[in-house]
UniProtKB/TrEMBL annotation:
GO cellular component: cytoplasm
NCBIfam families recorded: PRK05218.1 (NF003555)
Gene that produces this protein: htpG
SMART domains on file: HATPase_c
Record organism: Pseudomonas frederiksbergensis
GO molecular function: ATP binding; ATP hydrolysis activity; ATP-dependent protein folding chaperone; unfolded protein binding
Protein name per Swiss-Prot or TrEMBL: Chaperone protein HtpG
Histidine kinase/HSP90-like ATPase domain boundaries: 30-187
Length: 634
């Protein structure tokens, strides 16, 4: 190798310094996974070369036999890993090895907790597996050249994992990357062929290209050292092409860690081969934990796409709808061309058929998980529930199926956990109940204690309590489930149908008729503040509530629109009062119009507060309330 030129010393990005500190202080409880991470990166580099070489065969530089080689030197205490993949330019090396790439650096540091076990799960999520080399090495040298560049444009990157790294230009005849780990004194166990072979078999057997180690050949005294013979130590076949009966759970789990760059086992997976009109194989995984960028809808997502076992695309987002963006895995098609692009994928009718089938496959997998492993599904819902709630709006064809997977808090629980499915809700519905009742709000405490629930408590009717910001938007797309329509208990004129007896209905009509005078007085007193005033059928304990008009936006949607700076349509609430409440009886008997008006506005403002809304004129409310308190104390 020629003399190094253009040598410079650069500082690591702040986030990398903190990450390296965690690595060097044994963040991982299982040190041997450094090799898995480096092999996984090398495999990605080879996949990228294969893909780019479809359009530019000259990038192969006459060497189409793609592989990864791992070697060691016991005397020098080094482990070397070499691939003949896409390689790096000088700029690539600075970008990829000196910073945590992508948009997640701030999120990454925000998630670090100081708990080594928890923090170790984050490393894979942020694509920073390369730095795991510093778990076992006190110095790392990287020699690389990007395919297509001249031999004189090789790069040497070197660091001791402290605050900085050196980078220089070197001569490198072959494309690809060679990583040399200078092992710490306590980690020389890894400079051993048997140890390395076992690690590769354990973690990287599924890698679909040869991983080679030097063959152990006994030296004969007096003879020249024989040339190094290499042998493949992994199966080197694409795992998804093997029959399911031949693949162990451990192999599926390790392949997931490779394909998803995750350090935890997946929650579930589905391996399926389709033959007939379309021919493709899919291997889909549900992660255990949500990635940091789950709610960034523009973040990279999608499955690894292969065409006849040749890697084509890393994040092919056309095969699953956006609400399933957390699913990881591969799809290998026999029907697509090798030069397929993202633009072509979006227009190809074959993709529509595959997307429909893969979506059903995922939903079936989640249904099975919910039915057979309810505790695991509870964990899934905590991580991915809000994303699943995007489904009914995006995927009309599977709306009923998605609805069955949704989970909510309800008046049956006492801790606000979202564990109630619609099937269970209907199974314990009251006899004659033909509606699914729900209430939306900002917090669990607010909706649980809402006056809107009083009649439901009295009759023992379960109500779903929805407090996620997305919930009101979700319910605008969910009209019914299993033939039962959804009813917002805070909206319109509540009709309990068969749950109210004929006697109850008749009594309510008579009460409403007897209070027509009070209704008119309240309409006059509240004026433009309300759309309507009426006797309430919802209340048993509270004096008054505000109901929402059938076509009006609820409070959640109004707040979301206001926060985003959008114009909110004008609407006025419906004021409902409880004729049996002592305050309403006093109000009905009040002779002074001024005092009647003050009391009416106080009740209106209290009802707004109980609904979680803010007051239009807080000072007027305080003034009226103080006036009333003075009168009571005289």
């Amino acid at each position: 190798m020629s003399v190094e030129t253009q040598k410079e010393t650069l500082g690591f990005q702040t986030e990398v310094k903190q990450l390296l500190h965690l690595m060097i202080h044994s963040l991982y409880s299982n040190k041997e996974i450094f090799l898995r991470e480096l092999i996984s990166n090398a495999s990605d580099a080879v996949d990228k070369l294969r893909f780019e070489a479809l359009a530019k065969p000259e990038l192969l530089e006459g060497g189409a036999e793609l592989k990864i080689r791992v070697s060691f030197d016991k005397d020098a205490k080094t482990v070397t890993l070499e691939d003949n993949g896409i390689g790096m330019s000088r700029e690539d090396a600075v970008t990829h090895l000196g910073t945590i790439a992508k948009s997640g650096t701030a999120d990454f540091m925000k998630h670090l907790s100081g708990d080594q076990k928890k923090d170790s799960h984050l490393i894979g999520q942020f694509g920073v597996g390369f730095y795991s080399a510093f778990i076992v090495a006190d110095k790392v040298d990287v020699f690389s050249r990007r395919a297509g560049l001249a031999a004189s444009e090789g790069v040497h990157w070197s660091s001791k994992g402290e605050g900085e790294f050196e980078i220089s230009t070197v001569e490198k005849a072959d494309r690809g990357t060679r990583i040399v780990l200078h092992l710490k004194s306590a980690e020389d166990e890894f400079a051993d062929g048997w140890r390395l072979r076992n690690i590769i078999k354990k973690y990287s057997d599924h890698i679909a290209l040869p991983i080679e180690l030097p063959k152990e050949v006994a030296a004969v005294e007096g003879e020249e050292q024989p040339a190094v013979e290499w042998e493949t130590v992994n199966r080197a076949s694409a795992l998804w092409t093997r029959p399911r009966t031949e693949v162990k759970d451990e192999e599926y789990q390790e392949f997931y860690k490779h394909v998803a760059h995750d350090f935890e086992n997946p929650l579930s997976w589905s391996h399926n081969k389709v033959e007939g009109k379309l021919e493709y194989t899919s291997l889909l995984y549900v992660p255990t934990r949500a990635p940091f960028d789950l709610y960034q809808r523009e973040a990279p997502k999608g499955l690894k796409l292969y065409v006849q076992r040749v890697f084509v695309m890393d994040q092919a987002e056309s095969f699953l709808p956006l609400y399933l963006r957390f699913i990881k895995g591969v799809v290998d098609s026999n029907d697509l061309s090798l030069n397929v692009s993202r633009e072509i994928l979006q227009k190809d009718p074959i993709i529509d058929s595959m997307k429909s089938a893969l979506t059903k496959r995922v939903l079936d997998m989640l249904e099975k998980l919910a039915k057979n492993e309810p505790e695991q599904y509870k964990g899934f819902w905590k991580n991915f529930g809000q994303v699943m709630k995007e489904g009914p709006a995006e995927d009309f064809a599977n709306k009923e199926k998605i609805a069955g997977l949704l989970r909510f808090a309800s008046t049956q629980g006492d801790d606000g956990e979202q564990v109630v499915g619609l099937v269970d809700y209907l199974a314990r519905a009251k006899e004659g109940q033909d509606k699914i009742y729900y209430l939306t709000g900002e917090t669990y405490a607010q909706v649980k204690n809402s006056p809107h629930l009083e009649v439901f408590r009295k009759k023992g009717i379960e109500v779903l309590l929805l407090t996620d910001r997305i919930d009101e938007w979700l319910m605008s797309y969910l009209n019914d489930f299993d033939g039962k329509s959804f009813v917002d208990v805070a909206r319109g004129d509540l009709d309990l149908g068969n749950l109210d007896s004929e006697e109850d209905k008749k009594a309510a009509e008579e009460v409403a008729k007897s209070k027509e005078g009070l209704v008119e007085r309240l309409k006059t007193a509240l004026g433009d503040s309300v759309a309507e005033v009426r006797v309430s059928h919802r209340l048993t304990d509270s004096p008054a509530i505000l109901a929402i008009g059938e076509q009006d936006l609820g409070l959640q949607m109004r707040q979301i629109l206001e926060a985003s700076g959008q114009k909110v349509p004008d609407s006025k609430p419906i004021f409902e009062f409880n004729p049996a409440h002592p305050l309403i009886e006093k109000l009905d008997n009040e002779q002074s119009d001024e005092r009647f008006g003050d009391l009416s506005h106080i009740l209106f403002d209290q009802a707004a507060l109980a609904a979680g809304d803010s007051l239009k004129d807080p000072a007027a409310y305080v003034r009226r309330l103080n006036k009333l308190l003075v009168e009571l104390s005289v």
